[in-house]
Amino acid sequence: MIKPTESELEILQLLWQKGSCTVREINEELSKKKESEIGYTTTLKTMQIMHEKGLISRDDTAKTHIFTAVATESDTQKQLLDRFMDSVFRGSAMKMVMQALGNQHTTAEEIAEIKKLIDEMENKK
Predict the structure, then answer these.
(1) How far, CA to CA in Å, does 33 sit from each of 17, 49, 91, 93?
(2) pTM
(3) Which residues pair with 78 in a beta bridge?
(4) Which of 28, 30, 1 lies closest to 13 in space, CA to CA?
(5) Exposed, middle or buried, 48 (CB in 10 Å: 0-12/13-18/19+)?
(6) In sequence order, what are the beta bridge partners of 21?
(7) pLDDT (tens digit, 9 = 90+) per residue, 12-67?
(8) pLDDT in tens, 72-109
(9) Sign of the dihedral through C-alpha 95, 97, 99, 101
(10) Three-class HEC string of the chain
(11) Is 47:67 a contact under the CB 8 Å cutoff?
(12) Residue 70 in contact with residue 57, Cβ under 8 Å?
C-alpha cells in the first residue's frame, strides 16, 4: 500500500466518512475544515494523483466523476501506525503507548477501555 501524504489522508478521511463523493463535495468539506477557501483545481489535482497512485477509484460513467477510497480506514491506519512505530519507537509498541499516555490526559473511561483490550489480548494467548 502506498503511504498517503497529509493532504491525501485528509481526502481519504472524508471519503471514509461520507462514502463516494465528487471533487466539488470534497473541496467544500476541506474548505470548511480549513476555514479558508481551497482551490477546486488543487483538490482536483490531488485527487487525480491519488487515483493514479491507486488510493482512490473513479467512476467516470456520468458527467460528474464519483470518487471512492480503495483502501479501508483500518488498513490505512494499521499501515501508517506500523511505519510510525518502526521509525520513531524502533518497533516497540510499549514505548509508543507509554509516550502517548504520558503526553495526554487520559480519562478513566479510556483507561478502562485500555485495560479491557489488554485483558482480551491476554485471554487470546
Answers:
(1) 14, 21, 33, 31
(2) 0.77
(3) none
(4) 30
(5) middle
(6) 67
(7) 999 999 999 999 999 999 998 877 788 999 999 999 999 999 999 999 998 899 99
(8) 999 999 989 998 899 999 989 888 888 888 877 888 89
(9) negative
(10) CCCCCHHHHHHHHHHHHHCCECHHHHHHHHHHHHCCCCCHHHHHHHHHHHHHHCCEEEECCCCCCEEEECCCHHHHHHHHHHHHHHHHHCCCHHHHHHHHHHHCCCCHHHHHHHHHHHHHHHHHC
(11) yes
(12) yes
Q: Inter-axis angle of helices 40-53 and 23-34, to 10 degrees?
A: 120
Cα separation of 114 and 53, whole Å?
Answer: 36
- Cell numbers describing residue 63: 458527467
User: Within 10 A of 63 (CB to CB), how many other CB atoms are there?
Assistant: 5
Whether 47 contacts 23, CB under 8 Å: yes
